[in-house]
Amino acid sequence: MIHQSVxxxxxxxxxxxxxGDIYLDATLGSGGHMEEVWRKMKNKVTIAxxxxxxxxxxxxxxRLELIGAKPKLAVFNFRNINKVPEVLNIKNPTxxxxxxxxxxxxxESPVGKSGRGFSFQKDEPLLMTFKRKIKDEDTTAxxxxxxxxxxxxxxxxxxYGEERYSRRIAKAIVENRKKEPIKSSxxxxxxxxxxxxxxxxxxxxxxxTRTFQAIRIAVNDELKALEEGIEKGFAILAKEGRMAxxxxxxxxxxxxxxxxxxxxxxxxxxxxxxxPIIPTIDEINKNPRSRxxxxxxxxxI
Length: 301
Ligand SMILES: C[S@@+](CC[C@H](N)C(=O)[O-])C[C@H]1O[C@@H](n2cnc3c(N)ncnc32)[C@H](O)[C@@H]1O
Prior knowledge:
The chain is α/β, with parallel strands linked by helices. It has 2 domains: 177 residues, Rossmann fold; 89 residues, Orthogonal Bundle (DNA polymerase, domain 1). The chain contains 14 helices and 7 strands. The protein has a 7-stranded mixed β-sheet with strand order 3-2-1-4-5-7-6, sandwiched between helices. Helix 12 runs parallel beside helix 13. It is globular and about 60 Å long. The two termini are 38 Å apart. S-adenosylmethionine (SAM) binds next to helix 2 and strand 2.
């Protein structure tokens, strides 16, 4: 297990736990936040968690059971979070956490199995789905890259990746796929690298980073899922309960910021923090992935 949880101390402080709390982790991942909650509150709180990825649920479960915690868990997409109290047989949660994106453990391929193409550091098939059991009707990164029109690709790469060379990259993808299907993450990353200006190839981030983010968001319909998830999550949150969301890019943060502001304006919630909480320099030095994290918390009234 290599995933390092972000803003752990800040989550514990921001949630201000009390005996009898019901903590629902909407993105269990490797269970890092849940472990911290359990270490602080032990059996004084109920802990429950969901994740769209079965592997994450298994990793999280094992980790929590090792320290004696017995969380209620289910493989579940948070876009249907309103059904979780019934499915897990819990009352309305008093604390809900969304820690968005993917965990480092998902980037790693499990021993003996191939990864899902989230990363271009290793050559993997282009799947990029959070869930492992893919059905025929599910969209994968392979479908996006090999079937979507050039215009759609460019819009997605620009809209979800905020990539300024979106048009060039979309054009290169379409030209290359005419020769042979684009099947792997390294193949796609090479096409992107060759499509952008030389100066851009040696920037702070790999030139394919934004395009990979964009395709992942499209494949998992992440922004829609987030919109639905926070709205339904807020609906099941108990009165006086708190909802905390950690986002990692501006598209996610905008959705969170707007939703929270709307609830506050309608006097349905209060801000716990008006400005987003960001990691300390120390945390960023220890865990560079945390550098873009923003934490927002509201309390339902
Ligand atoms: C950053 S990780 C969470 C890490 C966790 N907080 C920890 O400290 O170990 C995000 C998790 O959210 C899951 N996820 C992403 N979108 C989801 C969705 N729509 N519904 C449920 N889980 C989702 C991913 O599968 C991933 O395991």
